Give the backbone structure.
Amino acid sequence: DIQLTQSPSFLSASVGDRVTITCRASQGISSYLAWYQQKPGKAPKLLIYAASTLQSGVPSRFSGSGSGTEFTLTISSLQPEDFATYYCQQLNSYPPLTFGGGTKVEIK
Amino acid sequence: EVQLVESGGGLVQPGGSLRLSCAASGFTFSSYAMHWVRQAPGKGLEYVSAISSNGGSTYYANSVKGRFTISRDNSKNTLYLQMGSLRAEDMAVYYCARPRGVRGTDAFDIWGQGTMVTVSS
């Protein structure tokens, strides 16, 4: 199975900061990667698929990049509603469609 | 409105059984593979099981293989997860999820609200 390693696992940032989260795959997955946002008590929400395509309705301050084994999720200017946990998911090798361990973004 | 609604969670003793349901509406359920994902308290997302659109193919994580059974009834637009020989480590919120497209490996754009399974004596 493909393993996904996210870093950092925890991030403290201020409103307006530029934030970058990394997801590394144990083997190449082309661009078959998605990013999700999850707030406490809620289901995950799809932000980005195919590594860099923004899901409909997601603010443009979110962006994704990368291919192969290294991917990044960037929030260009952190907003109060962006404090949440973010997960990557690989969609190249099925099954399973594994998730990364998550990155919690908290207010500094 | 495209929607998934889970039900069936609750408190069960170790070794017990439970059946989760996921009722789909607002889309052609029979065209989509479907997935179950769980999240233990304070932990990350774990991919648990999947079923093809016609039910002919299934997948189970090693952690649940032989104890859980995924199924679907396309006439009722409902996905199921029959859970048996439950352990403390199965305690989690269980989500059903639908991929964006009819290709089974699309990202999950629709999620249910989750149903909590508590395993305790």
User: Anything to note?
Assistant: Chain B touches chain A through 21 residues (CB under 8 Å). Chain B has no helices and eleven strands. The mean pLDDT of chain B is 96.
